[in-house]
């Protein structure tokens, strides 16, 4: 299951880690509020699509949740 995450603040980072650890689930995209949190998300989750535009994540056809 490909999952998109909206937000990468304090709780978003916890959710991202939980999603990453779930079997048969993939953290595929993260929408961040700021460039700073986007930079952190890219460092923490290489290969994951990261943007500051929430609509880019919401509109992705490859996401299941």
What report would you give on this structure?
With 65 residues, this protein is an alpha/beta fold. 42% of the residues lie in helices and 22% in strands. The protein has three helices and three strands, in the order βαβαβα. A three-stranded parallel sheet has the order 1-2-3. The longest helix has 12 residues, at 10-21. The radius of gyration is 10 Å and the shape is globular.
Q: Which secondary structure elements does this structure contain, and how are they paired or packed?
A:
Elements: E1 2-6, H1 10-21, E2 26-31, H2 35-44, E3 49-51, H3 54-58
Parallel strand pairs: 1-2, 2-3
What's this, in brief?
The protein is of the alpha/beta class and 65 residues long.
Protein traits:
single chain; 65 residues; alpha/beta; three-stranded parallel β-sheet; globular
Strand content bin: 15-25%
Q: How many strands in all?
A: 3
The ordered string of helix (H) and strand (E) elements is EHEHEH
Strand order of the largest sheet: 1-2-3
- Low-confidence sequence ranges: none
Main sheet makeup:
3 strands, parallel
Percent helix among the residues?
Answer: 40-55%
Distance between the termini: 8 Å
> Nearest-angstrom radius of gyration?
10 Å
Average per-residue pLDDT, rounded, comes to 96
Shape label? globular
**Structural class, from secondary structure content?**
alpha/beta
Count the DSSP helices. 3
């Amino acid at each position: 299951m490909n999952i998109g995450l909206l937000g990468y603040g304090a709780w978003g980072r916890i959710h991202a880690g939980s999603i990453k650890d779930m079997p048969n689930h993939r953290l595929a995209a993260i929408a961040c509020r700021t460039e700073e949190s986007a930079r952190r998300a890219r460092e923490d989750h290489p290969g994951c699509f990261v943007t500051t535009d929430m609509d880019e994540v919401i509109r992705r056809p490859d996401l299941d949740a």
